[in-house]
Amino acid sequence: MTEDPRRVRPEPGTRVTFRWRKWDDGAHWMHECVYLGSDEWGDWFGQPAGWNSQRPGRSFPAEADNVTLVPPSGDYAATFNAPPGTYRVYIDIAWDVQWRDGEPTGIDMDLDVVDARDGRGIWIDDRDEWEEHRVAYGYPLDIVAELERLAVDLEKRVTEHGAPFDADTPAQWLARLRALRLTAGDA
Question: Is 80 exceeded by the pLDDT of residue 149?
Answer without folding.
Answer: yes
